[in-house]
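Contributing new records

If you add data, match the layout below exactly. Sequence lines come first and carry their own label; structure lines follow with theirs. Keep one chain per record. Anything else will be rejected by the validation script.
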Amino acid sequence: MPGETFDKKLLDALRPAPKLQVHLLRHFLRPGQLYLQRLREESGKALEDLELMLLLKGSKFDRKFADDPEELWQRLVQRVNEQRKQYYWNVNRAELLVKFRKRDFPDGVGSDSIMRIADLSKAQRSSLQRKDRGHDQVWTVTDAVVKPPTWQVNLLIDREASGLIVRTIFPGEMAPPLPDRGWQNRQQYLQSQEFWSEWCFLS
């Protein structure tokens, strides 16, 4: 049974907080200097720290789709509002899977940094290794590979006592958190382990 309906109009009054925008930089290639300067002022972070975020490996948004988190947000709000798809709250979290059309973005909206191990080529499987990530180890393809394009974006909204918060945004496959005994209960930890036993990161 779906939960409470998520009102799409709520997105019009939201904006990713500067702290989240700093975190989201890891999914971008080269935002403009004007944007980085503005984010530096809003977040209090040094420009060097922002540029370091851009160097982190992982899934990336295509520059033809969005150059920075603000442009990304505008595209997401527009697409959610024009879609007929309905979203729902799961207790106090809404997970919005926003899909874009291939005809609008032939090269994809970004790249996916995870892949099902069963879908790897023989050469890719030969380079699989367990690597530290977070508080556990996960399978990682250590040879450089071309990350597959994606046409979907995950948007997570949390409902807190202070109001609604944009929790995170990323391109590609929705994945559970990495296994972490520090904060996950036993069931959550086992669920994460099960997923990450069948999926890997692309380096």
